[in-house]
Amino acid sequence: MARMTMIEALRSAMDVKLGDDPSVIVFGEDVGYFGGVFRCTAGLQARYGEERVFDTPINESAIVGMAVGMAAQGMRPCVEIQFADYVFPAYDQITQEAARLRHRSNGQFTCPLVVRMPTGGGIFGGQTHSQSPEALFTHVAGLKVVIPSNPYDAKGLLIAAIEDPDPVIFLEPKRIYNGPFAGDPHGKSVPWSAHPAGDVPEEHYSIPLGKAAIRRQGSAVTVLAYGTMVHVAEATVEQTGIDAEIIDLRTLLPLDLDTIRASVAKTGRCVVIHEATRTSGFGAELIAEVQEACFWHLRAPIQRVAGWDAPYPHAQEWDYFPGPDRIARALQQAMEA
Amino acid sequence: MSSRQGTRARLQFPHPPARPDQKADFSAIVVPEAGILPVPPLDIDASGCRELAVGMVRVLDKNNRPVGPWADYLGDLSADRLRLGLRDMLKMRAIDRRMLNAQRQGKTSFYLQCTGEEAIGCCFQRELSQGDMNFPTYRQQTLLVAADYPLEQLMGQLYSNELDPLKGRQLPIMHSARDYGFFSISGNLGTQYVQAVGWAMAAALTGTGKIAAGWIGDGATASNDFHSALLTASVYMPPVVLNVVNNQWAISTYTGIAAGKSETYAARALGYGIPALRVDGNDYLAVMAVSRWAIERARQGHGPVLIEWFTYRAAAHSTSDDPSAYRPRDEARAWPLGDPIDRLKAHLIARGDWSEERHVQAEAEILDEVTAVQKAVEAHGTFVDPQPISPAEIFLNVYADMPEHLRRQRQEMGY
After folding, report:
1. What is the distance in angstroms between the Cα of B191 and the nearest Cα belonging to chain A?
2. What are the backbone dihedrals phi and psi of residue B30, each rounded to the nearest 5 degrees, phi first?
3. Chain centroid to CA B81
4. What is the pLDDT of residues A124-143, one digit of tens each?
């Protein structure tokens, strides 16, 4: 067991897989010699050589397109898009090619590919370093969509994603790369070394895709969250004293409906939280699923806390980011209804 | 005021040489003499390729005799090899005829012919080895025909019947045949070009000795992934042959809209540092010579090469298209490079290895063969007489293992 940040845990996952599977290959912009703009691949090229870990031209469509061609031949590319905000030139390759290759070829060709990308706000990243595009991938049949919230999960989920036989969109909340974030920008920053989930085995382990984790047991209200918002929700619940059950979804597609259903059946109330913009965001799907599966258990309308339906601003970062105040209000509304 | 008007920037809007009410006009197309271009060394770089990229490799002369260095490169060709090529092309044309007819009869929803382009894919495929992988477009059925892909499967896919290897999931002509070196066709243009580069990179990394071949049309060279493929091929130097089939038309759009002021599509590759050649795509021997050279170059590890096959889309874009709405009716007949079948036939006759009588007989035999398979395949269902594939197939192969939400949806459907 070692103490790791999320960055180190992700790097460790790639290290383990590069070491135990010769078909695993890692590439992207600045990923090779330099080790990635967030250091997630630092040292990997030196250890495994340029044929396993290398730099690419600045062309997201090419990064994913090459990976699709490699994956179709049986390699397991784990590629990086520098920021989720820049994935759109690769959207065609991801949604029309990677996602559909198995189906359209009736299994003749498959696409065991992982597309890693730092996501989310809370870092004064402005319009193109803060977006949360998960709903643009959860809408696509054939993809899996994963978003970890701590180092232990990050490593286990990334190993599972690399070993998965199908394409996985792996979103990494960059706000919590170095430590959990409670949602208060003036609060003391806490490193992962001070958090239990910063304990990460150095060896191989995996966390199954499609399984949520209950972060806090509670009986009053179910909170559905993922990524950075898991920590903001935890802090808010501590502050308000509401006995919420916090579910970290971890995998958005396929979704762990059993865990969600059991929780809402118990609490009768539900609050959905995400950083992404509200309209047609993943929260809408969560609300619809809860409504269909738990209608007779519900004692209050399902609440939703999301980013505003505006491009991510720079100066107004903390007016945009769904912080503890907004989450507390939603929890209270869910409790009072 | 007037002087300012005189100097204002004006846009160019390229137009084809002739529209439906006009006489076909290919006077702007320069057709160089056969046999004048050299065969470059296999390790040539882009800077040495200029005359090959802006000229045109042609082997058969006016009398249908092979001439020049590329003819010498081919050496003595057996009559059987050439008759095999002719047979492949006749088979392709017979399939196109039958399937166009089947679409008109409502037996299939959609079809795309490759009339006039048969030499390119038919010949290229015969030069590949087992395990090499094509990344084709929807107009390279020729590759399947020359790979001896079973017609039952090819037509089963077109009819979406129980013989369809793709279980009715794909639009007709979007074949996939891994064992025959034919990658799954996508409706999204250009995407497969950079995937071919990735496949070739994987082949190099794992040391399989195999190569990849990318295919794209002239119109789709405008797509992002054309650039992506050329750039990555130039950066990593994988064993890939990048084919551009310039058939002059992208549905109704004249090739000048895709090309702009470029000299040729082949010349574009030179800017990426990739050697390139432009070839008479209707000259079976030129196709054979350049395919053989390019495939050998890639296999020996000299990196990517781009080939512009210069040809003409003689048929409609698809069964949903009417070319008389945008180009002269007789344009195909005016095409200066002629018809690939006619030219190879004439060459074989000039060699004394074929005759008009044998040709007529072969055409009839091949059409009979194709028609017989077609009838047998139709017994397994067509669009007008369906024997539907299980609707539950929709949910299979979305993922390796079916997730819970798809199980629920399948149950909701009643399966």
Report:
1. 7
2. -90, 120
3. 21
4. 999 999 999 999 999 999 99
Q: Which one, of B150, B98, B90, lies nearest residue B362 by Cα?
A: B90
- Whole-structure pTM value: 0.97
CA distance B182 to B178: 5
Q: How many residues does chain A have?
A: 337
- The single-letter DSSP state of residue B326 is T
Give how far B307 is from chain A: nearest CA, Å: 20
Tell me how crowded residue B260 is: count the other CB atoms within 10 A of its CB.
9
Q: Which helix (H) or strand (E) holds B69?
A: helix B69-74
pLDDT tens digits, one per residue of A151-200:
999 999 999 999 999 999 999 999 999 999 999 999 999 999 999 999 99
Which positions ≥6 away from B406 have C-beta within 8 Å?
Answer: B395, B398, B399
List the one residue out of B246, B289, B264 whose CA is nearest residue B60: B289
The whole-angstrom separation of Cα B345 and Cα B284 is 10
Instruction: Give percent of chain A with pLDDT exceeding 70.
Output: 100
A8 close contact with B: CB closer than 8 A: no
CA pair distance A27, A32, nearest whole angstrom? 7
- A50 and chain B: CB distance < 8 Å anywhere? no
Q: How far apart are CA A170 and CA A80, in angstroms?
A: 9
Adjacent-strand bridge partners of A78: A26, A114
Looking at the predicted structure, is the pLDDT value of residue A241 above 60? yes
Q: At what angle do helices B79-104 and B356-378 cross, to 10 degrees?
A: 50
DSSP state of B276: E
Find out whether A123 and A165 touch, Cβ atoms under 8 Å.
Answer: no
Cα(B71)–Cα(A337) distance, rounded to whole angstroms? 86
Task: Name the token pair of A152.
Answer: 């232990």
CB A135 within 8 A of CB A123: no
**H or E element that contains A120:** none
Show the tokens assigned to A181. Answer: 């974030």
Q: Is the dihedral of CA A27, A30, A36, A38 positive or negative?
A: negative
Distance (Å, whole) CA A306 – CA A326? 9
Test the A interface: residue of B133, B191, B210, B394 with most A CBs within 10 Å: B191
Q: Which of A61, A142, A257 sits opposite B399 (nearest CB)?
A: A142
Helix intervals (H) in A164-310: 228-240, 257-267, 282-294
* The 3-state secondary structure of B302-339, one letter per residue: CCCEEEEEECCCCCCCCCCCCHHHCCCCCHHHHCCCCC
Produce one character per residue of B286-311: b if its CB has 16 or more CB atoms within 10 Å, e if not: bbbbbbbbbbebbbeebbbbbbbbbb
Helix (H) or strand (E) holding B412: helix B404-413
Half-sphere exposure of B13 (CA within 13 A, CB side): 1
A289 near A260, Cβ under 8 Å? yes
What's the pLDDT score for residue B4?
59
Picking from A7, A16, A5, A11, the residue whose alpha carbon sits closest to that of residue A205 is A16
- ω into residue A254 within 30 of 0, thus cis? yes
Q: Report d(CA A24, CA A235) in Å as an integer.
A: 38
Write the CA distances from B323 to A327, B81, B239, B328, B329, integer angstroms: 61, 35, 37, 8, 8
- Report the chain A residue with the minimal C-alpha distance to residue B234: A57
Quick check: is A103 catalytic?
no
Q: Does B167 touch chain A (CB under 8 A)?
A: yes
Length of chain B: 415
Q: Give me the catalytic one of A129, A195, A231, A274.
A: A129
